[in-house]
Amino acid sequence: MKNSKYILGLLVLVLVYASVGIAAAPSLTYTFKDVKAKGATETDTYAVNNAGIIAGDFVDSAGAQHAMILKGTTPKKIDDKTCGTGAGAAGISFYGINSAGNAVGWCTSTTSSEPIGLMYIKGKLSEFTVPKALSTEANGINDKGDVVGTFIDSNGAQHGFLLHAKKYTQIDAPSPTPLPPPGPSTTRVRSPYTRSTPPVVMMLSF
User: Which of 9, 18, 96, 144 has its CA 20 to 30 A from that of 183?
Assistant: First the structure.
């Protein structure tokens, strides 16, 4: 009987602490709004920093796609001659932006017909590829300037990567079988967060 009362007392204490924790948790309020770049027929947003500056792409009235950094409604247009101007998933776009307004992304090269990474740092756009990779897609950048994304190696297998201090680190989830490269009818993975059969979820802090 004493043990039962002791256990019951513990349960009551657990419930009290749980209720206090729930009551103390701040309520979150979300505001949703449409985002449209001025003069665009299509606006695609993929990332936002703490200042509310958005990274993505837009399609102009002539049907050309441009990477953009959007503050307010007027987009800052960024183009690269290697990317071409075709609209769609293969077109130029930014997928990550940090507090300094530096952005990363990728496009399909008109020369190799494979994705190439893009970095927009301090107002200057540059291309990059993981060494010996067939394709490179950059998807995130933190405030230290570290970049993450995915790449296809020379054997056709897909991996995640971290670019830190000009050094590339390959990132793979535990898996007995590497993922094959995506076929024409599939969509490329754009972040190094799943890579196994069956898929597993990964969390990467950088």
Answer: 96
Q: What predicted TM-score, i.e. pTM, was given to this entire model?
A: 0.74
Strand order in the sheet with 103-108: 93-97, 103-108, 115-121, 124-128
Structure tokens, 190:
């754009």
CA distance 206 to 145: 10
Convert the pLDDT of each residue in 46-83 to its tens digit: 999 999 999 999 999 999 999 999 998 899 999 999 99
pLDDT at 34: 87
Q: What is the pLDDT of residues 140-190, one digit of tens each?
A: 999 999 999 999 999 999 999 999 999 999 999 876 555 555 554 443 333
Q: Residues 140-146: contacts with CB within 8 Å, 24+ apart?
A: 140/47, 140/95, 140/96, 140/104, 140/191, 141/96, 141/97, 141/98, 141/102, 141/103, 141/104, 142/98, 142/206, 143/98, 143/99, 143/100, 145/98, 145/102, 145/121, 146/206
Comparing CA positions, the residue from 16, 8, 48 lying closest to residue 32 is 48
CA distances from 102 to 56, 78, 141 (A): 12, 12, 8
Whole-angstrom Cα distance, residue 8 to residue 151? 55
The residues with which 96 forms a beta bridge, in sequence order, are 104
